Amino acid sequence: MKRTYNIKNRKIQAKQTKERILNSAKRLFEIHGLDGVTIESIANDAEVSVPSVYSLFKSKIGILSAVIDMVIDKEQFEILAQKASRAKTLRSYVKISAQMASQMYNTEKTFMNALRGASSLSPELKKIEKVHEERRYQRQEESLKIIANQNKFKEIINFNKARDILWAFTGRDMFRLLVIERGWELLEYEKWLAESLYQLLKNDFVISIK
Q1: pLDDT tens across 63-109, in order?
Q2: At which residues is the DNA-binding region annotated (predicted)?
């Protein structure tokens, strides 16, 4: 019983340590930018050892990736992703896709804006953004394939073109330009995005009659 308690206690401590590191990293990244923060400064701020940081995250890129994941409501994102994969019409699919983009970028915008302001030319930031974009591209491809395989939408022109359109229009840059730069309301952005995707994708997919 004592051994079980110790294992449980260590897991709790490890989780708390990880949270302290991520909270410290987030704050330091916002203040100093990516290039102005080191593993050592994160460890000092979180009051943990440098080896502990490396053990949990491997590198500064690993920490930044975890921070970005932390500021996104992953549970809500997964719920919407599941809904998208079960969509029965193209219109419902693009509506959910627009909601996913809106919620994800709105949640992370404060952190990403601060980070870009201090690290706009950082090669490390560009690297991590590329990784996240590749992950998003892959997930969207998988969801479209699920829908196609279930015969909910029948492909009639070009699957790759449809996938690229979805990826480009639901990207972070589109959200930044319209919502942050031009001041669009979130609902206005969602409606525009859903309708734009529908008009573009309906030429590549036809809704199944089944």
Answers
A1: 988 888 787 766 777 777 788 778 878 888 899 999 989 988 888 77
A2: 38-57
- Furthest C-alpha separation in the chain: 64
Which residues lie below 8 Å from residue 189, measured CB to CB, with a gap of 6+?
98, 102, 175, 178, 179
DSSP tag of 35: T
The pLDDT score that the predictor gives to residue 93 is: 87
Q: How far is CA 143 from CA 32, 86, 94, 97, in A?
A: 38, 9, 12, 10
Q: Write the DSSP string, 188-203.
A: HHHHHHHHHHHHHHTT
Strand, helix or coil at 151? coil
Q: From residue 62, how far is each of 97, 130, 153, 173, 200 by CA, in Å?
A: 27, 13, 38, 23, 36
What is the residue type of 41? S
Q: Which pTM was predicted?
A: 0.69
